[in-house]
Amino acid sequence: MKVLKFGGTSVGSAQRMKGVAKLITGERNIIVLSAMSGTTNSLVEISDYLYKKNPEGANETINSLEKKYKKHVEELYTTNEMKRKTLEFIKEEFNYLRSFTKGIFTIFEEKIIVGQGEIISTNMVTNYLIEQGYNAALIPALEFMRTDKNSEPDLEYISKNIKIQLDKVPEKDIYITQGFIASSTSPKTTTTLGREGSDFTAAIFANCLEAEEVTIWKDVDGLRNADPKRFPDTQKI
Asked: Are 66 and 140 in contact (CB under 8 A)?
């Protein structure tokens, strides 16, 4: 088994999602996806509005983001059946986001909101793969990805439960799941692994499954020889 992770810009548009599908080959690969580029920033913006008790501003951002996703759906799928199925899912997701504008808002609700981008992107890509004839299934990360009381990945729990989820959909070639998000035990709610958490997720899965390899796909034209935020004269390799 191999683990492949694709970042936000790699799934940042319908065309990019189609490109990812062409890169997925082999048997029993686990594909870890980030949210579509820009989505997490929008979800953070929604949370900021709600902290400031500005539901109108939050709803405006929600509506704008939903409109963007509907456009992606129209561009991604070729069959009316899959367009309808995915649009229904998008509608449910954004109605869920709107539900947070009507109650108390804390850090626990914020964690749920900022993790919705990965849930949306993985559903969209899974539906596209199935439409294109791939033998693929979605396995929800929240069913097996968990942090302990110290907010560290609970590797024993993850190892046991990811195998349980894989066994529920045997004989698949491709398993799609979310990076970044996890369940927490203290308190029991949705949490995240922080920015760049999807890379961390992929490495954890590879470790727990004793994968043959893990590949972190990046949509960049090179690497810098040092952190450009700390050093002004870095060189691209």
From this structure: no
